[in-house]
């Protein structure tokens, strides 16, 4: 009997696994995979549940890995939903529920494909599923915990496929061969409070804040590369909290978010921000402090055997040649890329994180077929892929 990815998706959706709650999702997967002969290990850290499942010995010359997550974002007001957000109702060919798109359907598809593959055609190699409960959160104790544990235990993937939704509008439309870097910088501008009628007795931090934010947002970071769009800087908030119209405030705050390509690094952009802030502070006398968080560096898995393997399977199953893209936000591939070559392919993602999140039922089965073909083609090859 084959493993039904639609039924598995529904069972996972019914697990209320809002980050960082496990919600029963990994317990369900561990039982399924253990029954299929996978050696399962819970790699929990920092209150986050993670699962590492391996079929085959870790000494094998070839190991194919899947990575994904079962945690989901909050549902918002359940009254806004057509169906129970954790009900997994199927209506008019759609499966509704939080996580139906991002990404319990993806996890169900690769788990079902892996189970059927090792039962029907046991490979000369190993198959690994690394599943986290912290992708939608701070991502400090999810895939990073799994990779830390793998390093300590001598576990190794040769290549990895992350099952995030990657297609904008149509199944098979796009795969990801890299991601832009992401960072946020929080600025605090400190002057001296005073009466707005006596400018000489105050130091207004707001003109310095406005000027610096305008200068940063007008700056062209680059013009893009062969595989990446131009980097972007967005001013996302400017806050003062001053209720009085006749008081110059002592402090203002502003935040920028930067999405950057592989011509930059987090350290380099941080140094640039600090330099521009120092110049503005010197010109105005306003004290400017910065706090920076780099969520992930830009990376690229250059087109090669791994991307070709995935693209060919997608084309056979969907009759579409997927674009090889680096667009979108961040994913856990930013961590996996330090371990092995990684690409991403998954469902149409335009309804993820939305009210009435839902996925086309037939696409779940189609995704399982794609993942199954990738496994068969990978292990049918005469030797390990060498990503070039």
Write a structural description.
- With 388 residues, the protein is of the alpha+beta class.
- The protein contains nine helices and 19 strands.
- A hairpin with a 2-residue loop joins strand 4 and strand 5 (94-96).
Q: Which features does this protein show?
A:
single chain; 388 residues; alpha+beta; 6-stranded mixed β-sheet; 4-stranded antiparallel β-sheet; 9 helices; elongated
Termini separation comes to 38 Å
* Class derived from helix and strand content: alpha+beta
Helix content: 25-40%
Strand order of the largest sheet: 1-2-6-3-7-18
Oligomer: single chain
Shape category: elongated
For the secondary structure, the number of strands is: 19
Largest sheet: 6 strands, mixed
Strand content: 15-25%
Secondary-structure element pattern, one letter each: HHEEEEEHEHEEEEEHEEEHEEHEHEEH
By DSSP (H or I, 4+ residues per run), the number of helices equals: 9
Radius of gyration: 24 Å
Please sum up the structure shown:
This protein is of the alpha+beta class.
Topology record:
Elements: H1 5-13, H2 25-35, E1 39-42, E2 50-55, E3 63-69, E4 90-91, E5 94-96, H3 100-120, E6 126-132, H4 143-153, E7 159-162, E8 174-176, E9 178-179, E10 181-190, E11 194-195, H5 206-218, E12 232-239, E13 247-248, E14 251-260, H6 266-284, E15 287-296, E16 299-300, H7 305-318, E17 323-325, H8 333-336, E18 342-344, E19 358-360, H9 361-380
Parallel strand pairs: 3-6, 3-7, 7-18, 8-17
Antiparallel strand pairs: 1-2, 2-6, 4-5, 5-19, 9-16, 10-14, 10-15, 11-13, 12-14
Helix pairs in contact: 1-3, 3-9, 5-6, 7-9
